Amino acid sequence: MLNIKNLHAAVEDKTILKGLNLEIKPGEVHAIMGPNGAGKSTLGNVLAGREGYERTNGEVLFNEKDIFEMDPEERAAEGMFLAFQYPVEIPGVSNLEFLKASLDAIRKYNNQPELDAVSFMKMARETCKAVNLDQSFLKRGVNEGFSGGEKKRNEIMQMMLLQPKLCILDETDSGLDIDALQVVAKGVNDLRDSNRSFVVVTHYQRLLDYIVPDYVHVLADGKIVKSGGKELAHELEDKGYGWLDNNEVA
Amino acid sequence: MSTTHNYIQESIELSEALENNSPTAWLSDFRKMQRIKLEGATVPTRTTEHFKYNNLTALNQGGLAKFPESPAVSAELPSLVSSLEGDTIVLIDGRFDSSSSKISGSHLVAFHEANEDQQKTIKDALSRQNFAKNIFNRVNAGLTHSGWLVEFNKSVDYRPLHIVHITTQAAVDSVINEQLIVKLNSMAEATVIEHFVSDNNIKSGKTISHQSAHFDIGDAANLQHYRLHLEHSAHIHFGQCTFWLNRDSQLNSFHLATGGIIKRIDLDVIHQSNGSHAEINGVYLAADKQQVDYHTNVEHRTPHCTTQEVFRGLIGGEAKAVFNGRIHIYPDAQKTLAELSNKNLLLSNKAEIDTKPELEIYADDVRCAHGATISQMDSTAMFYLTSRGIPKEKAKLMLSFGFVNELINNINNDAIVDYLQPLLTQFFKQTVTE
User: Fold this and answer.
1) Cα B322 to Cα B299: distance, rounded to the nearest angstrom
2) Which of A97, B58, B210, B320 could be bridged to B140 by S-S, CB 3.0 to 4.6 A?
3) Which residues does B309 contact at the CB level (< 8 Å), separation at least 6?
4) Which residues does chain B have within 8 Å of residue A77's beta carbon, measured at their own beta carbons?
């Protein structure tokens, strides 16, 4: 599904990722944890193709295709989805219009017919309900005036609607109360299947109680310094990231 | 001496010629007064404060100050005429077209049919306007030969009044002068739509149109006003809208303009009695090498009045837009609440906007806020949309539309929204993808 080899990346000439390796197979859930400034968000942004996040070395293959040959919209159409840490507010563009435009674009790219308005509306309403958002959110401007939790639920709603192959959740748990966290986790768990993979980037182990990962990786100073099963998350929570400095493994 | 033609002096000659054969001889003194005041005047240049950012060289062509020789007898009507329920006055090249107009009621009077009282109302309104800022306002006054007086009374359920100004090929290289005087007596309610378009069959050439509108909004009266400028890009327009707000009156005014060779619109809103409220929204769109300029001036002369003003502009190509928003709060105008916001989105590196908010506050117990921003396409929003699979061109289109859509969606007249949406889509498609 996703194969990252020796990835180096820089933001404004500052190298953040310094040789990251990661392989994700279909159906797997990988959690990436790490202290502030380790490069967690950079990873998500580089993968999704954000301007200003530059790959300086290494390669990333997504379904055998070089992602750096593709624009952000092509990566999305190929099935990559980044749930933003800070979803963007776009007044004047309704959520509904936004969802329709992205679904239409992705279906077109994959040679599927455009969904008719009635089926689309039905689908939009159902997903809205699934993430516990009132239908009125569909008509509002994209994320406009949404609370932190509503924005994150809106991200999950988009994910459910677009049915991507690879979902990257960039600190989706930050700023969420426990109820919203459960809604988000349920959305993710409902989407889990043998063909869909997840990269869950988080600071805290808490989210991983709800989204149970197959693998946990620790990212520090631009590299993965330790990998393990889900129990690694608990170990980190107990001992803190400082523990890694004393027991440098990588 | 240069051989540049002087449009202003040519206009004086045209005004003199009007006196030979005018159906509005009772305006002759008024016109003469304007001619005297215009004596020796020239077209403003960049050293003229209120025209600092305008390029008026197109007026130097000469021979433009003449009325259309044989005005067109028919023209294609904009679709809003059929979709909007109401009274319609159709003016083709400035001439009233009775066959396509629909008017009911005696509240609509053409200048040449005005009785003595009405003539007085007209003269009063024409004389009261602000001539100091914009010389073209006086040019239009000097050329006043036709226009409409509309009077609304309380307790009458008027249909919206739609005034359509259509310019055709027959008016190319000539000038059109129009006046509109609207009086809302106390507690009257009315909707007025001023709508300016060009006939689709215009191939080339420019027409100059001048139009001044005067709105006297009586005590506790309520005016819903729209002014839509959608002429073709070779058009030249000088417009003036003056709103006099009386006690507890309400004005809601929406403006939209696409660019032209020159398009300059001045809005004056005068709160002259306590408790009035004005809401003014506007959108301007300029592409290619077009110009568009809104000069707004809100005067708070009395206490307890409020103004909310929002203008947004989208400028692409090598176009140039000017926005000058003045709010003047007089010493007596305590408890004023006035807000002005102007946001601009530049769609290309060569597009230009000159925006200038001007606050003059002479009272101490007021709330007044203003802000002007100029931005380019927000890269974070672009990334958000493209990361969801939306192609860049489409994303740009959505964002530029979104930028003005808030104002369009606030229009509480579905027929107008439905009419404007496809026109805007068309504009954005051309401008954003150029």
Assistant:
1) 20
2) B210
3) B278, B279, B280, B281, B296, B298, B325, B327, B338, B339, B340, B341
4) 389
